[in-house]
Amino acid sequence: VRQGMFVFIDEASVLTYQFKDDCQAAQVNEGIMNSEWSFGFPKGSPFKVLVDRKILLYRENGYLSRVWKKWYNKAAGCGGREHIGNDLQFGLEILSGLFYVFGAAVLIAVLLFVAEVGFVAVMKR
Fold first, then answer.
1. CA distance linking residue 120 with residue 48, whole number of Å
2. Where is pLDDT greater, at 105 or 45?
């Protein structure tokens, strides 16, 4: 990424953590698809109430905000600046390679499907 025109596409939380100390990286279109965490419990589980209360306590006393700032706060290490560099909007011309690869994969999948259908038809004779 630092040596050329490359792009990372991943979950926002992963990228935010990976580049939190890199003041030359820019995260573009932050917040389009926010990821959230959830916990699943069986119906009637006694742990649901305990976990709900603990999360509420952590939110009320600011613990979750402190943890977020500790692990994800990019601005702290960059002199208060969130992003340095170019908040470039990625258009079709920049991401066209992804579309070419996807198109080639779809074409290969269709060809393999046709070959399989032909093979099955010949074997049934």
1. 52
2. 105
Q: Of 24, 49, 29, nearest to 39 (Cα)?
A: 49
Instruction: For the full predicted model, state whether its pTM sits above 0.70.
Output: no
Percent of the chain with pLDDT over 70: 60
Q: Which residues of 66-91 are buried (b: 16+ CB within 10 A; e: fewer)?
A: eeeeeeeebeeebeeeebeeeeeeee
DSSP string, 64-124: HHHHHHHHH-HHHHTTT-S--S------HHHHHHHHHHHHHHHHHHHHHHHHHHHHHHHHH
Q: What is the mean pLDDT of residues 75-86?
A: 52
Report d(CA 102, CA 96) in Å as an integer: 10
Q: How many CB atoms lie within 10 A of CB 20?
A: 19
% residues pLDDT > 90 (the chain): 18
